[in-house]
Amino acid sequence: MNLSGRSSVRPTRPCVPLVAVAFLYAAAQLVAVTTRMRLGWDETVYVSQVSPHVPTAFFSAPRARGVTLLAAPLVAVTSSVAALRIYMTVLSTIGLVIAYWPWTRLLRPVTVALAAFLLAVLWMVQFYGNAVMPNIYVAYGAVAATGWFAHTVRGQSRAAPVWLAASLAFVALIRPGDAMWLVPTLLVAVAFAHRRRLIALAAIVIGPLAGAAEWVVEAYVRFGDPLRRLRAASETEGGLGWHPEGVRMELHALDHNLLCRPCGGATWHVQPLSAWWPLVPVLAAGGLVLAARGRRLGLLAPPAACGAVLGASYLFLVGYAAPRFLIPAYALLALPMAELAWGAATLGRGRWRIATAGAVALGLAAQTAGQQLVLAHMVTSQYTARGDFVAITGQLQYLGVRPPCTLSGEQAPPLAFYTGCRSLQIAGNDMSTDVAGLRRAATLTRLAVVEHIGQRPRYTRGWLRYSFTTPSGRRWRVFLPPHPPAAPRT
What we know:
Blueprint: H1 16-32, H2 41-48, H3 66-75, H4 81-100, H5 109-120, H6 123-127, H7 135-154, H8 160-174, H9 176-190, H10 197-211, H11 213-223, H12 226-236, H13 246-253, H14 279-293, H15 297-317, H16 327-345, H17 350-398, E1 405-409, H18 412-419, E2 422-423, H19 435-442, E3 446-452, E4 464-469, E5 475-480
Parallel strand pairs: 1-2, 1-3
Antiparallel strand pairs: 3-5, 4-5
C-alpha cells in the first residue's frame, strides 16, 4: 500500500461544498438544539474550572482541561448559557471546516463535503455541537491529523508536518486517552510510507507530547505521577479492561440514553432508527474497496484504521456506554463511507446513474429524517430533566441553602453549579471526600444532601428531611443538619 501516491484531484474551490455543509450544521444546532438548554453534569464541571462566577468543581483523574480552554474566553466575561451555546456553535462549525479542509486537496471536494455531512447529520453530533464536551473536538483533531499525515508523506506541503503535529497536540490536549490510541495507529501507517518517514515520525511523536504536557504536569502535582493518575482514572471509569459486552451496550444506548451507566440490561434488539449503526463498518469497508480500485486506498486506509481503533477502544475496553464516545470513529470512517456513496451515486450512465444517484439520495434523506427524530426526543427529554435543576435550586434557596454552601448527593455537581455552592461527593465518579469530611463541611458551611427517593443515607440520621416533586414528576429529598452554622456576616 503506497501512502505517497499522487492524486489527480486539483479542485479550484475545494472548500465551497464543505463550507455549505458547515452552515447547515450551524443552523441545525441553533434550530434543533435550543440555546436555552441548561448545562449538563459534565459541562458544569468543565465550565466551573474557568468560570469566575461559581466555585470550582472536583476534577477527576480521567478528565483533561483542553475543552475548558476552548470555553474560557466566553465564560470569563459572562455567565449566560445562551451566549455560551452560541459561542460553542461557532467553534464547532469552524472546527468542522478545519478538520476536513486538508482532505479537500486529496479527494474530490464533493466527497469531502459528503463525509462532513455524514458526520454532522448524526443526532449526537448536533446535540453536542454547542456543548462544552470534548468528543467532537477529538474527532476534528483526528480527522485533521490523518489528512495532514497524508500531505506529509506525499511531500507536497512543507507546512504539513507542522499541522500534523498541531492536530495531534490538539487531540492530546482535549483527551489524552484518545491520543494514546491514535498515535500508535499512525506510527504503523508510517511504515507504509515511501517518503518523508522521519519527518512524519517526528511530528507524530512531538505533537502529542506537547499536547499532553499539561495533563502530565497535573498528574505529578495531584496524583504523584502519570501512572498513578491512569490507575485512578481506571478506577473512576469502573475498571478499564476487556468488556466484550460494549458493542451491545452502545447499541442499547444509541437512541435512548446520553449515558448508559450501569448498562446491564442492554439487549441485542435493534430498533428501526438504529439500523444504520451496524452498517457503518460494512459501508466503510466498501468505501475502502472502491478506493483501492481508484488507487486511493493509501489515502483512506489511515483514517479508516484510526477510526476502527478509536471505536474499538470504547466498544471493548469501557464497561459502560455513551453515544458520544464514538463520534471520533464516525468522523474518521465517514471518509471511506463518503467515497462509497459518491462512487455509487455516479455509477454507470444514463438511467442507471439516475437510479443509483436516487437510491443514494433516498438513503441520505432517510438517515437525516431518522436522526432528526432521535434528536428531537433527546432534546425534549434533556430539556425537561435539566429543568428540574431550577426547581431543586429553588427549594434549596427556600430552605436557606445559599452561598457559601456545600451540596452532596445525587446530581450534586450540576446543582452546586446553579446554586453557587461547592460539591462534595463520598461515592461515584466525582468522589472527593468521605463521610468524616462531609460532616466536617457541615460545621463550616450550610450543607445539604439531595437524593432521589430511595434509602436514606446513614450519615443523615437525625437530620431534617424535606420532600418535594419536580415538574418532571420525580420525587426528591433534601437532608439538612439540625444545627447549621450561622450565616457569615456580609
